[in-house]
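Reopening this ticket.

The earlier resolution said the output was attached, but the attachment link was broken on my side. Pasting everything inline this time so it's all in one place.
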Amino acid sequence: MTWKSVVALLVALAIGGGLIAYGANQLSSGTVQCGGRTMARGDTCVETKNNSETKRSYDEQLDQSRQGNQIAIVIDALIVVGALGFTALGVRARRIQRRSLGQAAPSA
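Inline output:
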């Protein structure tokens, strides 16, 4: 395994792990955000995109936020698993290459 592979693995693990931690923290926090502002019960979140307005109650915004965070956590976990999988494949390929080079060398 080359140092570039190790650095790539560590970067992927740091990004994936950090995003998992952030998503989990958002799930466990009791605050509901709308456009960067904290909502309270009874508030309505109004978002405008492409000249279309969407209104959500506090509970609807909470559900929307939880769903988004859960999806993000799953995607981030896949990043971590993918990084570990590629690393395992790289280590395995390197071991096979070393073994085949060792067997191909002429014996004196």
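Reporter confirms the inline version is readable. The mean pLDDT is 86. The first strand starts at residue 32 and ends at 34.
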